[in-house]
Amino acid sequence: LCARIDGIAAEIGHQNILRLCENVDLVRSTAEAHGLTPLAQLTRSLEAALARIQAGRASSQAALAEAQAQWEAEKRNGGRDALAAARNRLVQARLDANTWQQALADMQGNTGEVQHALGRPDLALPLYEQALQSYPSSAGSNVYAIERVRGDMALVYRARGDRARALALQQQVHATLLPLLGAQHPDVREAQSEIAALGAPPARPAKRQ
């Protein structure tokens, strides 16, 4: 089981979709066969991320390259209407490419959770770090996913004895999620509980933009 998860982590950077799918399916079936329900649920999240990657990867990159080329051509030779159409197409192509990038970040974060659930925090931490770097934006729908990754990272640092870094991450999670989700949301309460366990008051909530 661990070897299969290691294979998933190794292939994320190379984006070998077929091998990723095979490894995720084997992890899920093995976890279900041994009654590891939480792990099986996490692999379903991996499968969802893979589905998004498969749907958008190749087509979005090709569309972005084509839209960029058309935009450059219209800037040189096109009229106002053609230039506006090319610009709109380029904007949409960039949005589609961001969707693929977000799916990759989700995949990295979810794989980190699987490693963490198996008691392998040293393998989970770099995946969490990669996920934070991969998210195309820290705004909008990405906020919750990013803060969940930060919370998971904080748990790793706390287990390793790095309480200062764990505290800083949990305070950031709490400050960001509190105004968005409210004080009773499980993730907000978990962050507050961790902060208390680390011996400090919660940070002030982040101001809404």
Question: What is the C-alpha radius of gyration, as a whole number of Å?
Answer: 20 Å
N/C terminus separation: 44 Å
Estimate the mean pLDDT confidence: 79
Structural class: mainly alpha
Order of helices and strands: HHHHHHHH
Shape: globular
What is the count of helical runs? 8
Strand tally: 0
* Unreliable residue stretches: none
Strand content: under 5%
Helix content: over 70%
Report the biggest beta sheet as strand number plus sense, adding barrel if it closes.
Answer: none
SSE map:
Layout: H1 2-12, H2 17-33, H3 37-77, H4 80-117, H5 121-134, H6 142-159, H7 163-181, H8 186-197
Helix pairs in contact: 1-2, 1-4, 2-3, 3-4, 4-5, 4-6, 5-6, 6-7, 7-8
How would you sum up this structure, described in words?
33% of the residues are buried. By secondary structure, this protein is mainly α. The protein is built from 8 helices and no strands. The protein has helices at 2-12, 17-33, 37-77, 80-117, 121-134, 142-159, 163-181, 186-197. Helix 2 (17-33) runs antiparallel to helix 3 and helix 3 (37-77) packs antiparallel against helix 4 (80-117).
Task: Describe the structure concisely for a colleague.
By secondary structure, this protein is mainly alpha-helical. The protein has eight helices and no strands.
Search tags:
0% strand; 8 helices; globular; mainly alpha; 209 residues
